[in-house]
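The protein record minuted underneath.
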Amino acid sequence: MAIGAQATATYDRSSAVGAGAATTRKDQIVLGTFKTEVTAPNLAGDGTEIIAANEDGTLQRTSMSFKQLDKAVRKKLPKLESAARGLGQAVQASGAIASAMSAIPEVTLQEDEPARCGVGTGAYGSQYAISAGCAVRVGDRLHLNGALSYTPSVDYEYGSTASIAGRLGFSFPLGKRNTTADKNNTMNASSDEIFEYRSQVNTDMAALRSDLNSRDQQIEELKAKLEALLKQQPNQNNAESAPGAEATAELVALLRKQIKHLEEQTSSQEGEISKLRDENRSLRTKT
């Protein structure tokens, strides 16, 4: 349907209203041309405001003007974006404070120290914090601890975060362990270990003594052979002319070398036995 001079509506279910209006597709309503001013009396009101459609498609004026929309877009939104970034930095500052606080002692470690103090630092994201505090022993079973932490303030457009954070707390045990039973169990376990170790030491000493006796017997046999060879060896004047004199001299030198080596091993084993005997005596006093 076309209404107006030179109006055309060539597409199905399309309408052209106004001089020169022309449809470009089906199911379309065209009001005038790009030069036409469209006036709807029911949308009239004071100032320039935004037109919106309700749930059934009826057009109506809103209470927001173009000036308000422009202000929101140019000023409010950037401020909200900056505030969101600032809140993110504030969260990072909180994480940095928590990290720095965790480095401060909460209890004293040694029994003879009345207080233990510390300084810590922490970082999270782009923020950092430093802290200092002390833990004080109030009694045998009660500790007080306190700390302060500093981090740079973060401005988030609508305010700023605090730079100082603090903590104060106390700790105490619940219940009491049966230290007597634990001590007895420890002593029993230690006694059993000492007994097993002493048994091993005695076994090692017995093996060393057996080896030492066997080595002493070898030394005596070698010495007997050496004495027999020395008796059979001719005197020095006839040593070069006697048959087999050179071989006998070499055998004598070899026997002496073996005897010396066995005596050195015997001396070393005697030292080990003495050391094991002293260790066994020390373990006996502990049990």
User: Anything to note?
Assistant: The radius of gyration is 53 Å.
